[in-house]
């Protein structure tokens, strides 16, 4: 599903709102999530999952074409951990444990 499909589905379910209002709401939600992550905050949507940022340290990589060593700078990447309710829905009511990456040990979702 892409953003426009999400907006269309929300518009079908909420006919009392205009398409423009729904676009503004969806845009605001995404902007707030992005802003929180850029500040280093964690965003938790109970039952759905949690967004956080992980730090990838600088390292020496390899150019796959030439095999030459390449310095890769430190970077921060978004990370999403599914909530228990979403995992249950995806797996037909059976929770297979989800992602146990141990990023923060906090699994109250």
Structure explained in plain terms:
- By secondary structure, the protein is an alpha+beta fold.
- The chain has helices spanning 3-13, 19-38, 84-90, and strands at residues 43-45, 49-56, 59-62, 69-72, 75-82.
- A three-stranded antiparallel sheet has the order 1-2-5. Strands 3-4 form a two-stranded antiparallel ribbon.
- A hairpin with a 3-residue loop joins strand 1 and strand 2.
- The model is unreliable at 100-109 (pLDDT under 50).
Helix content: 25-40%
Question: What would the average pLDDT be, to the nearest integer?
Answer: 89
Beta strand %: 15-25%
Radius of gyration: 19 Å
SSE diagram, text form:
Layout: H1 3-13, H2 19-38, E1 43-45, E2 49-56, E3 59-62, E4 69-72, E5 75-82, H3 84-90
Antiparallel strand pairs: 1-2, 2-5, 3-4
Question: What are the main properties of this structure?
Answer:
two-stranded antiparallel ribbon; 25% strand; 109 residues; 35% helix; alpha+beta
In short:
It is built from 3 helices and 5 strands, in the order ααβββββα.
């Amino acid at each position: 599903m892409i953003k426009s499909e999400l907006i269309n589905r929300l518009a079908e379910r909420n006919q009392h709102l205009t398409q423009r209002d729904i676009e503004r709401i969806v845009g605001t939600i995404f902007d707030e999530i992005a802003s929180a992550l850029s500040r280093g905050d964690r965003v938790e949507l109970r039952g759905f999952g949690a967004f956080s940022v992980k730090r990838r340290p600088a390292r020496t990589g390899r150019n796959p074409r030439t095999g030459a060593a390449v310095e890769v700078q430190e970077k921060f990447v978004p990370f999403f951990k599914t909530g228990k309710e979403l995992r249950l829905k995806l797996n037909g009511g059976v929770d297979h444990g989800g992602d146990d990456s141990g990023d923060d040990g906090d699994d109250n979702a």
